């Protein structure tokens, strides 16, 4: 078992989730039940799966949930890129979140290798 609040990857994922929720406040209202909803689900899935894996009994189980979290990070990155390409939000506001997604993906890969 791992203390999630001490895991850097979980901390970064929480930072990304909060920033994503804040970004979604500026999304067009007609996207509230579409892309905005999907983006929020992807964002919260990342720290949630890291936390669930941390609470499991073995490193192999933890790796499995890190893998799911990584998939969610790629999903979120894709959705953020779509927002940017559709000009739904200012690219300067979206790009830092894309970069944070990529950082978390790299951290996740390294962490899985260490487990």
Layout of secondary structure:
Elements: H1 8-24, H2 35-54, H3 59-85, H4 91-114
The rounded distance between the terminal residues' Cα atoms is 12 Å
**What shape does the CA trace take?**
elongated
Q: Pick out the low-confidence regions.
A: none
Share of helix, binned: over 70%
In N-to-C order, the SSE pattern is: HHHH
Q: What is the strand tally?
A: 0
Integer-rounded radius of gyration? 14 Å
Mean pLDDT, all residues: 96
Task: Please tally the helical runs, counting DSSP H or I stretches of 4 or more residues.
Answer: 4
Provide the β-strand percentage band: under 5%
What would you call the structural class? mainly alpha
Tell me the major beta sheet: none
Quick rundown:
This protein is 77% helix and 0% strand. By secondary structure, it is mainly alpha-helical.
Keywords:
4 helices; 77% helix; 0% strand
Description of the structure:
Helix 1 packs antiparallel against helix 4 (91-114) and helix 3 packs antiparallel against helix 4 (91-114). The model has no long low-confidence stretch (mean pLDDT 96). It is built from four helices and no strands. It is mostly helical and 115 residues long. 29% of the residues are buried.
